[in-house]
Design brief:
It is built from 21 helices and 28 strands. It is of the alpha/beta class and 636 residues long. It binds 5'-O-[(L-methionyl)-sulphamoyl]adenosine.
Length: 636
């Protein structure tokens, strides 16, 4: 029997489209599933929508629509966003699904039979945005006025109605024993203490129904037409119904997946998942999930995202501007699982440029382009590496191992930090080896060794990036000539040139003046000005002139051979023969335009333009960096 890994996300209220916070919960679950799939597990990711209750009904009423019509309109936004973000959804559960409603009814009927449910009268405060009965411990008001909700801080309202109660208090000791025996049950570890304190403070029985007169939108309460199931008692059961609970035809499916190995949720809904949910499961005689991963909030401008503050970020706008995988990377790397984290576009762009374009993207581009230029595309991994290369690969292996442990602990930001140490190590190796200086056939063997070592190390590291950036790692696999599954295990590579994996983002916002009028006063734009965007289209690079040849039948032209580092070796024709003897230019570093369309000059294809400037007496001078820099360096 294969190993299974079942992971869930919270099911989202359908009162708004998905935002960056809901994307975060979902991406964390997807990374966990992909990581386990890589380890040979069969995986099941369940996400979906929480569609009943007062909050949804009120939103539908405000929109002047029937609840079901209102909800149905939102569903494509969720499904499409998750699809776009590469979330591998095994089952998308909706709490209005017939099978789910049946599962909830079955569960309540079992509890009724056992005597876990009794009728009573609720009198207390209720928070509709959180759909929570406010406990006395959460009351913040001391003057008798309606208290603010302890979770969201919004106003609560008084509620007094007949309802059914679940004997939560009867599970207090069993819950405390569970926490004591499973101190690792909640990740991060410190959160379990808050839960223990809450339960030790004494558990009151929990209302699990609402009067149909006030909340008509819900699952009918079994045996009492005047009541509907309380939305959290309904919603939490999605984790069971999604994998077949309550359906005799799906008993095998349910046994295959339940209990879940991981349940992802935000810190605002810990009590529901760490207190009520395990008690519900205990009452049903079912096993508890193996782990809860509780993440902090993403804050924008110092505040939790909310419609009223107008700081909600739409994941689709981010995907349009930056691509899906870079956004997944930034969520996994920049947002700490354990704490609240700030999110800003400046930081996102800075990380894309530094970590993705400069560190990883550049390494791939540099090594692959160089190998292609030196016609070393078919590479066999040797059985034995020389000492220095062995050391590099051992370092990379150790970092991958550390990343693996972090993945197992669901600490993705730390796993990625280990992998990026590996990328820096490979970059430093390539830089120190300077294979571009090893010209001529006598160096081919050594150059090949450097290339295969760098490629092999990159492939190892890339395997650990797949769960976070599956789509870009699939492209990288193609560039290396291996399929994604064997990334990190290949013995043969077939390299292919291609566009950069991570195009650099022009960080407009950081550079724009606070007040655009300021620039106008100091520098009037006129027809001769170009925009920074136009200038950024030029790719100016530094290269060393390694050969200067006279072009037969031309009095003006030199054919320059230029070592352009990661861009390989370029041939550039320059009409400067009248100004320089070959030895004046030989071995010099110069600046050249690297992205001019190639053109033939006296039958020689010229792949760029070397730049010169006239001095005071009309002689041309080569434009060079003031000090030696690595070839291929980009002017900025
Ligand atoms: N419907 C309930 C969950 C029921 S699960 C049986 C719910 N829905 S929600 O749409 O309000 O929130 C769902 C998840 O999104 C929660 O885990 C919440 O923490 C997360 N996020 C919502 N905003 C967030 C941020 N700004 N940052 C990170 N995650 C946050 O609660």
């Amino acid at each position: 029997m294969s190993k299974t890994f079942y992971v869930t996300t919270p099911i989202y209220y359908v009162t708004a489209k998905p935002h960056l916070g809901s994307l975060y919960s979902t991406v964390l679950a997807d990374i966990a599933a992909r990581w386990h799939r890589l380890q040979g597990y069969d995986t099941c990711l369940v996400t979906g929508t929480d569609e009943h209750g007062q909050k949804v009904a009120a939103a539908a009423a405000a929109a002047g629509k029937q609840p079901q019509v209102f909800i149905d309109e939102f569903i494509p936004a969720f499904r499409d966003t998750w699809k776009r973000y590469g979330i591998d959804v095994h089952h998308f559960i909706r709490t209005t699904d017939t099978a789910h409603k049946h599962a909830v009814t079955t569960w309540i009927q079992q509890l009724q039979r056992q005597g876990d449910i009794y009728q009573g009268q609720y009198a207390g405060f209720y928070c509709t945005p959180c759909e929570t009965f406010v406990t006395e411990k959460d009351h913040e008001s001391s003057d008798g006025s309606a208290p603010k909700c302890g979770s969201c801080g919004r106003a609560t309202s008084w509620m007094e109605e007949r309802c059914y109660f679940f004997r939560l208090s009867a599970y207090q000791e069993r819950l405390l024993a569970w926490y004591r025996e499973n101190p690792q049950w909640i990740v991060p570890g410190e959160r379990i203490q808050e839960v223990i304190s809450f339960v030790e403070g004494g558990l009151k029985d929990l209302a699990i129904s609402r009067s149909k007169a006030t909340v008509p939108w819900g699952i009918p309460f079994p045996g009492d037409e005047s009541q509907v199931v309380y939305v959290w008692a309904d919603a939490l059961n999605n984790y069971l119904s999604a994998v077949g609970y309550g359906d005799p035809n799906q008993a095998a499916e349910f046994a295959r997946w339940w209990p879940a190995q991981l349940q992802v949720l935000g810190k605002d809904i810990v009590r529901f998942h760490a207190v009520y949910w395990p008690a519900f499961l205990m009452a049903a005689g079912l096993a508890l999930p193996e782990r809860l991963l509780v993440h902090g909030w993403i804050k924008v401008g110092g505040e939790k995202m909310s419609k009223s503050l107008g700081n909600v970020i739409d994941p689709n706008n981010l995907a349009d501007a930056y691509g899906v995988d870079p956004v997944r990377y930034v969520l996994a790397k920049a947002i700490s699982v354990s704490h609240d984290s700030s999110f800003s576009i400046e930081d996102l762009e800075q990380r894309i440029n530094a970590d993705l374009a400069d560190d990883l993207g550049n390494l791939v581009q540099r090594v692959v382009s160089f190998a292609v230029a030196r016609k070393m595309t078919a590479l066999h991994v040797p059985d034995v590496f020389p000492a220095e290369e062995m050391l590099l690969l051992a370092d990379v292996e150790a970092l991958c191992q550390a990343a693996s442990e972090e993945y197992d602990a669901y600490m993705y930001h730390r796993a990625l930090a280990e992998i990026w140490k590996g990328i820096a190590r490979v970059n430093a190796y390539v830089h120190a080896q300077e294979p571009w200086k090893l010209r001529g056939a006598e160096h081919d063997e050594r150059v090949r060794m450097i290339v295969v070592t760098a490629v092999h190390a990159m492939a190892h590291l890339a395997r650990y990036i797949i769960p976070v950036m599956p789509e870009r790692m699939a492209i990288l696999s193609q560039r290396l000539g291996v399929n994604s599954e064997s990334l990190g295990f290949a013995r043969v590579y077939a390299l292919q040139a291609g566009a950069p994996l991570f195009p650099k983002i022009e960080q407009k916002k950081a550079e724009e003046p606070m007040n655009p009028a300021e620039t106008k006063s100091t520098q009037q734009a006129d027809a001769s000005c170009i925009t920074i965007d136009t200038f950024a289209q030029s790719d100016l690079r530094v290269g060393t002139i390694t050969a200067v040849d006279i072009v037969p039948k031309s009095e003006k032209l030199y054919k320059l051979t230029v070592d352009a580092g990661e861009l390989g070796v370029r041939t550039i024709c320059s009409g400067v023969r009248a100004h320089f003897a070959p030895e004046d230019l030989l071995g010099k570093q110069g600046v050249f335009v690297a992205n001019l369309a190639p053109r033939a000059m006296m039958g020689i294809p010229s792949q760029g333009m070397m730049l010169f400037v006239e001095d005071a007496i009309g002689r041309l001078q080569l434009v060079s960096p003031a000090a030696s820099v690595p070839n291929g360096g980009r002017l900025r």
